[in-house]
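Can anyone check this?
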Amino acid sequence: MNWEMARTRLEPVLEARIRPAAMAIEEWNIAAQDILTGEMSKSVASEKETLFFLEADEETAVLLAVEKSLAKGERDLVELLLETWKSESAPSEAEKAAAPVDSWLLLRNWLLDRIEQGEPYPSMPETYCDLGDFGTASIPFLIQGDFADPGGVGASELGKLLDSFFETKTVVIPLGEREWVLLGSSELLEASEAEDGESGEHESIEETLVSIGSGLLEMLDNEWVGECHLAVHMPIVPAESLVQAILTMREAVELGKAYHPGENVHFPWQLQLERLFFEIPPGAKTGFVKHVFKEAHSLDGDMIAALETFFAQNCSVSDTAKRLYIHRNTLLYRLDKFKQETGLDVRTFHDAVLVKIALLLYKVTKRA
């Protein structure tokens, strides 16, 4: 069953943190058996938590842990709800055969625990490495859904969509109800290199990943259930550095939302300045922006677009004018007007650097 859905629905009602857990099946059988009647219970309460049985294989019982001791009536109600949700979201036979459900739940829990405890570089336990080819290079992606109600969206549905798009097997690990980490095959880069060889052009790894990420986002926009944000990481060996990759991609999404609103695909290597500025106190950001822009009345949408495009085109007046579909003299007029109001000529290196930084901070301070 979708335990994340159960957690989301039950936590506000029970007013307690809920997490997945596991126990050796022998231990669970002893804990859940009534000493007097010999009957098995579907929940066990202690002083600090209550455990609810979800499912089991020959060795492990998969549980839902509520960090609170619940009365018998509350436990009965939760048991009833879990049984109802379990029947509604029963996996297909193919999904059951893919991998033991408890192993994927525990891998997810292990990842989130390492993130919460601030351990960015732990080696993945061998138990989880057996779930996939985590010892070889993979391309990590992170998807965060921006939609309000995820409905029946799950890892299996997303996996099928990705397998079709990439034409290779993609590992999907749900981190939350609206967040998934994906591990794409490194064959994606090899295929791109082969295409470059045929065309005589050679893209860098960064350029190839930008192309892959942009294509993936376009597919998700067309085929997915709602708007989402996508982050792409450089290739890694998941068994060695998956936690750090997730932290980096989460940070990239946060920085992208703050400094580049309207963009939904984010690449950590393109956000170096944004990462540096993110830790600056809000007051210092506002002060710097006011110092650079002064009382620039011309700093409207057209002027901002002109400046950003100018920097994106390596400060080329001709290329910027073509990209903006305006006459070269019109662009020069805007740049001269900006210079008159601020004293800064973005056609010089020093002033261009100041304005580039101020523009990044302006987007954040304006919304604060």
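Reply from J.R.: I decoded it. The chain has 16 helices and nine strands.
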